[in-house]
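PROTEIN DESIGN WORKSHEET
SECTION A - STRUCTURE
LENGTH: 240
TOKENS:
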């Protein structure tokens, strides 16, 4: 069973799941302003809400990124993004409750379908194409809602969420994490892809990535993709 919450919406009012009238369930989506995957899904999330809300399954979007780590995900930036995209759904700021931890969300976007009793009925991706809407062949959320409406269990009940790690202090993927290993391509893309074109240019690259840019740019097009970023070497452990 999921946890209800009270969070600040971009209109300045506080909302909870219980405050949504005539809901038969809820599509809770952890998302952000800055993650390329979340941005790629924005129009699809709008379409999903417009299609599902009249049937009693509204989208409730939550931004759990810590703005001290990801400045573009502050409340003010959320208000701007909401106005720019004209989001028809609730867009809430997860400030103090760290509700994403209670849900177990790790990515943006990461989706939870709840029934009216807040029982979690599906967890995972919205559909089967993380960045290219034209390549979607399976709409997991829509299929899961249809199953509930027909008294059936969603199939599948879980899928793998594809996206950027939620950035929060102590979340294991925040800046305080000092575990050694290969750099996370999704983190690098979210941090350095300033113009949000799903690639890192030489001008955007920083630190070790700037040093290794030419070697990683296999097709020499002046832009690093997620596939090319995955070829970065492991960090060396410091000598004791």
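SECTION B - SEQUENCE
RESIDUE ASSIGNMENT:
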């Amino acid at each position: 069973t999921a946890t209800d919450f009270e969070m600040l919406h971009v209109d300045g009012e506080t909302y909870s799941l219980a405050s949504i009238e005539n809901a038969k369930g809820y599509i809770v989506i952890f998302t952000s302003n800055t993650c390329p995957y979340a941005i790629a899904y924005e129009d699809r999330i709008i379409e999903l809400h417009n299609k599902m809300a009249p049937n009693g399954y509204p989208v409730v979007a939550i931004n759990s990124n810590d703005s001290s780590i990801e400045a573009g995900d502050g409340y003010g930036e959320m208000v701007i993004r909401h106005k720019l995209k004209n989001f028809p759904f609730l867009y809430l700021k997860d400030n103090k409750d760290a509700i994403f931890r209670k849900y177990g969300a790790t990515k943006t976007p990461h989706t939870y379908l709840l029934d009216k009793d807040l029982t979690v009925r599906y967890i995972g991706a919205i559909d089967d194409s993380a960045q290219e809407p034209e390549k979607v062949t399976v709409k997991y959320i829509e299929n899961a809602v249809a199953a509930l409406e027909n008294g059936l269990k969603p199939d599948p009940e879980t899928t793998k969420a594809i996206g950027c790690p939620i950035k929060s202090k102590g979340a294991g993927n925040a800046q305080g994490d000092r575990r050694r290993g290969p750099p996370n391509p999704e983190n690098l893309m979210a941090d350095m892809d300033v113009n949000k074109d799903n690639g890192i240019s030489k001008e955007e690259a920083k630190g070790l990535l700037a040093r290794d840019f030419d070697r990683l740019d296999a097709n020499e097009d002046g832009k690093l993709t997620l596939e090319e970023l995955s070829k970065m070497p492991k960090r060396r452990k410091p000598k004791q």
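SECTION C - NOTES
Residues 36-52 form the longest helix (17 residues).
The two ends are 46 Å apart (CA to CA).
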